Amino acid sequence: MKKILFAALALLVMTAATQQKVTTIFIIGDSTAAKKDLSTGSPERGWGMALQCYFDEAFIRVDNHAVNGRSSKSFINEGRWQKVLDRIQPGDYVIIQFGHNDEKPGETRHTDPGSTFDANLAKFINETRALGGIPIVMNPVVRRNFAKQTVKNDDDEALRNTTFKDGAKTQEGSVLKDTHGLYAVAPKHVADSLHAYFIDATRITHDLEQGLGVEGSKKLHMWYEPGQHKALPEGRQDNTHYNIYGAHQVAKLFAEALCQEIPLLSKYLKNDKPCKMEKN
Fold first, then answer.
1. Which of 23, 61, 79, 257 is surrounded by the fewest CB atoms within 10 Å?
2. Residue 97 Cα to chain centre, angstroms
C-alpha cells in the first residue's frame, strides 16, 4: 500500500513539474509590430511576428495584437485594448508601443505627447497591472530617414500604395534623422513616473539603422527595385515597414533588451536555435 502511495505522490510531483504555466507576452501597437496578411506573398512583416522565434514556445507564448495604422487612441476606441484585457492572466507581460500614428493629424488617431498620448500609455500600464499583468513600455522604432531635407509623411500606411519610382527623387545624406520628436520621449517619462519597465526601441533601432548606413539599412525595409520581388513588380521605397529580414533583426534585438531589463526572461531566450527565417 505504501509503495502505491509513494508512486502516486511521485506521479503528482512529476505532473506538477511538467505543467509549468506558459507565460504570454502580449504586444499592442502599430504596423511596425503588427501581423500582416501573408496571402499576397508580400515580404512585409512586423517585428512582433518574429519575436516568438527568440523565446522558447514551451514557456513563453507571444500573442501579437498590434494592427496596421493604429494609434494609442484608435486602439482603445476600436475595442482592441479590451480584447487584450479579456485575455491577460497574472504574470503575463504586455508590450506597449505606439507613436507612429499618434503623430498623425486626423481626429481618430492623433494624441499629444505630455497630454493625451501620456494618458493613454498610463491607462495601458494601470489596467494591465490591475489584472496582475506586467507592462513593458517601448517608444516607437525609427523610420529610415536619411533624407537631406525633411520629408512630410502624413500617413505611413500610404507607403504600400507607392512604387519604387515614387521615392527616387529623395536625396539622402549619411546621418539618420529623427521623425518622432516628443513621441519618442514621452513613453520613457510615463514609464519612469509609474515605475514600469521601459525598452528604448528608438535608440535600439536608430543604432541598428545608422550602423548599417544608407545602403545597408535598405535591407531592413520594404525597399525593392522593380522586378526584385515577385509580389512587388513595380518595386517599392518604404522606409517605415520591415521586410522579413528587418523584422527578425529588430525582434532579436528587442528580445535581448527584454531579457536585460527583465532577467527572469533570459532563461527562455533562444540564442542557439531560433526558428528558421523565411526567405526574404
1. 79
2. 7
Question: Cβ of 269: how many Cβ atoms within 10 Å?
Answer: 17
Residue 22 has pLDDT above 60, yes or no: yes
Residue 6 is assigned to a structural domain of this protein: no
Residues of the domain holding 55? 23-268
Position 259, amino acid = C
Query: Residue 173 is part of a domain; what is its CATH number?
Result: 3.40.50.1110
Pick left, alpha or beta for residue 132 (phi over 0 → left; psi -120 to 50 → alpha; otherwise beta): left
Residue 105 scores a pLDDT above 80: yes
Domain-embedded: residue 203:
yes
Give the 3-state secondary structure of residue 270.
coil
User: Chain-wide mean pLDDT for the chain?
Assistant: 90
Angle at 80 between CA 110 and CA 78, to 5 degrees: 50
Place of cell 529610415: 144
C-alpha cell belonging to residue 3: 509503495
Residue 134's φ and ψ, nearest 5 degrees, are -120, 110
Residue 276 forms part of a structural domain: no
Name which of 51, 38, 43 is nearest 223 in CA terms. Answer: 43
| Structural domain includes residue 75 | yes
Q: Domains in the chain: how many in total? A: 1
5 vs 214, which has greater pLDDT?
214
**What grid cell was written down for 158?**
500610404
